Amino acid sequence: MTAIKKKKREGTLFVISAPSGSGKSTLCRELLRKIPGIKLSVSYTTRKPRKGETNNIHYTFISQKRFKNMINSGEFAEWAMVHGNLYGTSIKRLKKLNKEGYDIILDIDVQGAFQVKNNYKDAVYIFILPPSMEILKQRLMNRKTDSKEAITRRLDRAKDEILSYKEYDYVIINDKLEKAYRDLESIIISARLKTKNIDHKKIIDFIKKWR
Ligand code: ADP
Ligand code: 5GP
User: Fold this and answer.
1) Of 16, 26, 28, which is best to mutate to test ligand 1, by the most ligand atoms within 8 angstroms of its C-beta?
2) Beta strands, E only, 53-207
3) Residue 205 lies in a domain
4) 4 lies in a domain?
5) Which domain holds residue 162?
6) Which numbered atom of ligand 2 lies nearest the CA of 113?
7) Which ligand sits nearest to residue 107's alpha carbon?
8) What's the CA gap between 162 and 75, in Å, rounded?
9) How many domains does the chain have?
10) CA distance 89 to 183
11) Closest-lying ligand to the alpha carbon of 111?
């Protein structure tokens, strides 16, 4: 029997990708509201804020110049150009959340997910799909945050993104929201129950108290 190390549990990195409009933000918001101990890594972007978005909560909105400086000084765990804007995950933010013991959600596109795969071997990769392209289009139109041209661009790109689903550990089809949410929550919970992810210190402590 291997000795149990008296080590605090380490957070898990959950990488979640989906074609724009699939419901990824809706599902992640629900997760953050309902499950304690998990946080979203707030990305940097050169995109302009949408109505209702707050700096440093939804994204940290920065100029292209600052973003390029951050690339050059190696501050990103991954970065990518998505729909004409730059997006990136800060290494410093990941380290801080990890040190604080949180599980972390990375809501990033497929290019970013592939970069993370090279550096974070233990991450869990989740892909969210809409039930059909027609429903995806409908959701993008109902959301009313993008122009007609932007919606066409997002749908064109969706086809290529969807082809990457096989690279992910889990696939969730977001048809009925409640069911998709339960699926997502189950993945998070089962990752937390893995022996390597549990709080070994807690177990050692309760054994010690008995002796
Ligand atoms: P993403 O973050 O993937 O771009 P959003 O979470 O913004 O997508 O969702 C796109 C739109 O679809 C939003 O208006 C959201 O309320 C709606 N939506 C999300 N999931 C569902 C669902 N299961 N059924 C119907 N509408 C949904
Ligand atoms: P939106 O502009 O709709 O918020 O996001 C567009 C796309 O950019 C989404 O697919 C989202 O997952 C992705 N994205 C957001 N932040 C990052 C990031 O830090 N890195 C990468 N690679 N993609 C991101």
Assistant:
1) 26
2) 60-61, 76-82, 85-90, 103-107, 124-129, 170-173
3) no
4) no
5) 13-194
6) 22
7) 2
8) 29
9) 1
10) 25
11) 2
Q: How many CB atoms lie within 10 A of CB 67?
A: 20
What's the 86 CA to ligand 1 centre distance in angstroms? 22
Tell how far the Cα of 26 is from the centroid of ligand 1, in angstroms: 6
pLDDT computed for residue 46 by the predictor: 98
**Ligand 1 pocket test: which of 32, 53, 141, 143 has the largest number of ligand atoms within 8 Å of its C-beta?**
143
Q: What is the pTM of this model?
A: 0.92
Nearest ligand by distance to the CA of 83:
2
Considering the chain, what is the average pLDDT of its residues? 92
CA 31 to chain centre: 11
Q: Is the pLDDT of residue 7 over 80?
A: no
Q: Which residue has the higher pLDDT, 99 or 4?
A: 99
* pLDDT at residue 211, rounded to an integer: 67
- Ligand 2 atom with the smallest distance to the CA of 76 is 19
Q: Could you read off the pLDDT of 71-122 as tens digits, one per residue? A: 999 999 999 999 899 999 999 999 999 999 999 999 999 999 999 999 888 9
Among 12-21, 30-39, 93-102, 145-154, which stretch is predicted with the lowest mean pLDDT?
145-154
pLDDT digits (tens, 9 = 90+) for 180-209: 999 999 999 999 999 988 888 888 888 888
Is residue 21 classed exposed, middle or buried when 0-12, 13-18 and 19+ CB atoms within 10 A define those classes? buried
d(CA 94, CA 135): 34
Query: For the domain that residue 90 is a member of, what is the CATH number?
Result: 3.40.50.300
